[in-house]
Specification:
The chain contains 6 helices and 12 strands. By secondary structure, the protein is of the alpha+beta class. α3 crosses α5. The N terminus is likely disordered. One of its GO terms (cellular component) is cytosol.
């Protein structure tokens, strides 16, 4: 099961087979499960804290562990042959990564902020899925949904302007946050640029345009408030 959650980059796209296995199942609260919490994955997981900018795994390493984010934010990326970096996606609490059939990781993962993750040995996860078909079906269902959504997003972003891409990105983060108008943006402008296939300068200009148009407000602590989500959605759907 292999979910593709990359937002496509212009000018160079990473081939489909090289995208990340990223999932949001189950989307857990950013805290350690209680002793009586019915979480089949927690029983086989170990907690690990990664410092800001610390590598979690690198492309080409043996893919013997699946990771679930408990708190913080993680970037997934590939280095292209010309030396550029393509950020495949950003992981938040509840997201899983490493669920792929490949023997080795097809991308690298780094902590953007101090992050806590659950490390789940692949062999133990395979045994758990064999013993619990319902859990396996749930994982497969979410993987399929993620794949369809990601492919739709790739097609859309391939036709969008820089400002439309940025609006889509902010709305996607807002939907994932699920509460309030303010969203956390702990990633850098460079990270966003490498995710959307833009330059850092273009991303910065885009934020300025959205701010002067009163569509967003830049808050302290690396947060952005969406002042007019409906107008942002109209902008994002202009392609």
């Amino acid at each position: 099961m292999h979910a593709h959650t990359a937002i496509a980059a212009q000018p160079t796209r990473v081939p489909h087979g090289h995208q990340a296995a990223v999932m949001a199942m189950p989307r857990v609260a950013p805290s350690r499960p209680a002793a009586n919490d019915v979480d089949p994955l927690a029983a086989i997981a170990q907690f690990r804290v990664f410092d800001r900018e610390q590598s979690i795994f690198a492309e080409g390493e043996a893919a013997d562990t699946v990771f679930r984010v408990v708190d913080g934010m993680i970037r997934l990326y590939k280095l292209l042959p010309d030396g550029r970096r393509q950020i495949i996606g950003f992981l938040q609490a509840g997201d899983m990564v490493g669920l792929a059939f490949a023997d080795r990781y097809l991308y690298s993962a780094e902590a953007i902020t101090a992050s806590t993750v659950q490390r789940i040995p692949r062999c133990q996860l395979d045994a758990l899925l064999d013993a619990q078909p319902a859990l396996a079906r749930r994982l497969l269902s979410v993987t399929t949904s993620e794949l369809v959504a990601a492919q739709d997003q790739m097609l859309l972003l391939g036709r969008k302007s820089a400002l439309e891409k940025l609006a889509s990105f902010l709305l996607a983060l807002s939907r994932r946050a699920g509460a309030g108008r303010a969203i956390a943006l702990p990633m850098s402008r460079c990270d966003i640029a490498d995710h959307l296939g833009l330059t850092t300068e273009t991303v910065s200009r885009g934020f300025t345009k959205l701010k002067t148009s009163r569509l967003i407000r830049i808050l302290d602590g690396g947060r952005v408030e969406l002042l007019d989500a409906e107008a942002l959605a109209d902008l994002a759907e202009c392609a």
